[in-house]
Amino acid sequence: MPKQFHLVSLGCAKNTVDSESMAQILAGNGFHATADAAQADVLIVNTCGFIGPAKEESYQVLHDLAAQKSGDQLLIAAGCLTQRYGAEVVERVPGIDGVLGTRRWMDIMQLVTRLRQRPHPEPIYHLPTAAATVGTDEGDILRVTTQGPSAYIKIADGCRRPCAFCAIPLIKGTAVSRPLESILKEARHLRDQGVREINLIAQDTTDYGHDLGLKNGLAQLMDSLATAVPDLDWIRLLYAYPGYVTDELIETMARHRNLIAYLDMPLQHAHPETLKRMRRPANMDWVHRTLEKMRRLLPELALRTTFIVGYPGETDQEFDALMDFVETIRFDRVGVFTFSFEPGTSSEPLGDPIPSAVKEARREALMLRQQQISLENNQAWVGRTLDVLIEGHGEVEGTGEPIAIGRSYRDAPEIDGVVFVEGQPPIGEIVPARVNGAMTYDLTATVETAPQLIVLPD
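^ that's the sequence the OP posted. Answer follows.
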């Protein structure tokens, strides 16, 4: 009977890419994936350990699988939680057989083999400290994950930024960029598989190539991608770092049709003093100038950002400055998170002094302000035509009329809005759709058909 594995991937898209890569390795060694945990020889949870709620979700999934597993099954805890907490994870979840960190997930088969070769009364740990998740020895394993007509490519891993609230450097290590040719090969492969959209991801995409000695490495990468796969419709950039969106990068995006006018740049706050305490770039003049230039060169630019409210020391005045900034810039998409206290980060000495109720009230106030802006931005598209990538089919509740669900270039997968299109154009196609309705996050539209040619009689 074929060996089987059951893999649960938690957290962000970057984790999902690692999970898909592990699945490729296991498949190449004779394993088959199964959705039924009871049928699997090996159970793997690729955990998230970024903030408190994500950690608790990871523990819960591990507990559930440990409680259900039989004596001949192996349970491996992988990913961010295990890299950071190691033995603490095993202590909290009895029944874990192996521990695999983020920095050598490509050793999954080696760990499985070790666990199978001999009795292991104690869990086997595989937690190298070196940040060797990517590099020149990549072989044939793709660092991608595909979801229908859309895919993610991880261009780097790790982070060297000093953000006080963030545990990523503790988990992932410093930034390591992938070879340019490996990324181009994956883009061509995805294009040949019928993928219409590629999303470039890393902890900090704008740091791409720094460790390779490249100047403006991200601009070089995107220029090379746009040239290598000119027939791939959308190439989207996620996770840009403030202060490092260069003129060269902006001009490269403006020069190529398939580098879509979308920027995800998590700013985290807008008051310089808050940003200084966060150890984030605090030059708000740069932010205004850069966004102004982007909107001038990319008139249809869609802007996404994220903010943290309730960071230690955030005053009412600092929060008001953030509210005013959001009103001024008028982002298309905004995510708002309350500060999560993380032991071991450089913000630990600041504690967590702002009450949860205050943090939540600020989050709700900012989201309410942004919802009105998002609605007004969406309403400006009514009557205009957008290309929509069709991802699924459904029915209108109550009437049963057919409807398609897709995204425009303004919508990153999973985190932004959708476009509901009347009828059922084929999944995977990009169709021109005339917008006829706007909601806070989503649009409604009809497929725009070419005008009929009328032939007059002689």
